[in-house]
Amino acid sequence: MAVQLRLKATGASPGIASGPAYVEQQPAPPAVPNQPSAVSGHAELSAAIEVAIHQLESLATEADAESSDIIDFQIEVLRDPTISEMASARITAGDNVVFSWVGTLDGYIRELESAEEEQLRARAVDILDIKNRVLAALSGTPVEDFPAGSVYVGKDMEPSRFLAHNWSAGGGIALYGGSVAGHVALLARSRSVPMVIGAGPFALASGQEVRVDGDTGLIVLQPGRDRPLPARSDSLPMTAPVADNGKQLTADGVQTLLFINLNAPDEIRSIDPSTTAGIGLMRSEFAVTSLADAVNEEKQLSIYRHALEWAGGRSVTIRMFDIGGDKPMPGLAAASDLRGIRLLFARPEITRVQVRALLRAAVFGNLRVMLPMVTFPSDVDNMREIFREEAAELLGRGTPHRLPPIGMMVEVPAAALTLDEFKTADFLSFGTNDLSQYLVACARNDIDFAGLRERSVPAVLRLISYATKLAGIRPLSICGDIAGDPRWTGDLLAAGIRHFSVAPPQLPAIRSAIVGLKSDGTRVAGE
Ligand code: PEP
Ligand code: MG
């Protein structure tokens, strides 16, 4: 029998998973450059238009006379050479295929919306429909998926790849590199997918049995294994069983609220909303993972609305796209270092679509919008101005909407240290993952960050304690990973934090930590 080989690395997400290895041979494909070759852009657009025409033609076979008229009109527009020539001219001029299509169709829609004739104005929605149909065809699947139930082995993994994979059959992740604070590790923890990082390169063939132990950081290679291994991971329960709307008293009777962090929208399927105070952080960049979806207002509206309806009146904090760094959006410029709010300001074609989708979603529940990587007070003011402008636009069109409270992540040290200056932010939430990386000057997707993050905690806690005093009466919460680690719950209570937003599997541990602590963070006698 072949000997087991045990590699000691670092656990990044708890639990044990076994299965055949899927070894990623290729380096991660680079993000499509901002200005793809015009040739591929034209071809991509023609193919997407053909897909949309084909879909409409099959719809037409079962449509009644009135619907048939609309479909015929839509097909006619899609076949209209002027439309594709206008989009093609933008592509030739160097614009991205998605932006070219949206820019062309938006111009047409605006023209129709402002037409004198009622009949023409009514056509705008038909064009909106084909705009989104072509966008859906353009979005495609970002990368090839790997077999369900297997253990992914590779240098690193892109968040979009994690999100596109079906984890319901189990499986795990073993990385040569990676980081405990990288976004894939964060996703793995929130979905209870066992993950080990930092193993260094090791030889393994696809299909060979491998075991990943996220608790101990072990990777066990089992050549010629002679006993069956569990196919599914030993995952923690996804929900906290207490239906108290996330209210938890400390040992001395002070109320705290427990929210959940939401990454992919379908994560809420297995969670009973009454066990939470709501969603404290929805990372919209994990809900909308392609450029075509990022400019698709209707698609985003349905994603946000779904979360709001699930919450049933509880608070839902949706963070605007935090794209950039180790969260690239396939198809969007990889060339710049911009991330978070700076990228949002640099990309109004995306930002304004998200703003409109959020304004429209706000009528379906208790929405709060949170801004990522805010650094200066003017960041909040400038984004609020965009919300006002888009609200005026929606009002002009008679589209139902509501201006939600706009708050900010406190995850850039400069903002934390000057928090009293951010008077126009309606609420604040500490992002300790980014605070850590900027305090210890080490990128969070760097392999060395695991140890540095642990050592950064005292500095992060001091910063939080200081910033909390500057926050005044504004609602304050914490949604970074430290919030879900019971070792620090006492320090966070002592710093004045009362609202915790954590990955769903961490809810039970934080509940029990709070039960055994007083509001000043000290333990009750006997604990
Ligand atoms: C954080 O930085 O702590 C945070 C919650 O945001 P993200 O992990 O998505 O960067
Ligand atoms: Mg962050």
Give the distance, in angstroms, between the N- and C-terminal Cα atoms.
49 Å
The best one-word shape is globular
User: Any idea of the CATH class of the largest domain?
Assistant: Alpha Beta
What value does the Rg take, in angstroms? 24 Å
Bound molecules: phosphoenolpyruvate, magnesium ion
Q: Assign the CATH topology of the largest domain.
A: TIM Barrel
Sheet with the most strands, sense and barrel status: 9 strands, mixed
CATH architecture of the largest domain: Alpha-Beta Barrel
Protein described:
- This protein has 527 residues and is α/β, with parallel strands linked by helices.
- The protein folds into 3 domains: 96 residues, Phosphohistidine domain (Glucose Oxidase, domain 1), CATH 3.50.30.10; 102 residues, Enzyme I, Chain A, domain 2, CATH 1.10.274.10; 269 residues, TIM Barrel (Alpha-Beta Barrel).
- The chain is built from 19 helices and 17 strands.
- Strands 9, 10, 11, 12, 13, 14, 15, 16 and 17 form a 9-stranded mixed sheet that branches. It has an 8-stranded mixed sheet with strand order 1-8-7-3-4-5-6-2.
- Strand 14, helix 15 and strand 15 form a beta-alpha-beta unit.
- Helix 4 packs antiparallel against helix 6 and helix 13 crosses helix 14.
- The longest helix is centred in the N-terminal third of the chain and has 24 residues.
- It is globular.
- The two termini are 49 Å apart.
- The structure holds phosphoenolpyruvate and magnesium ion (MG).
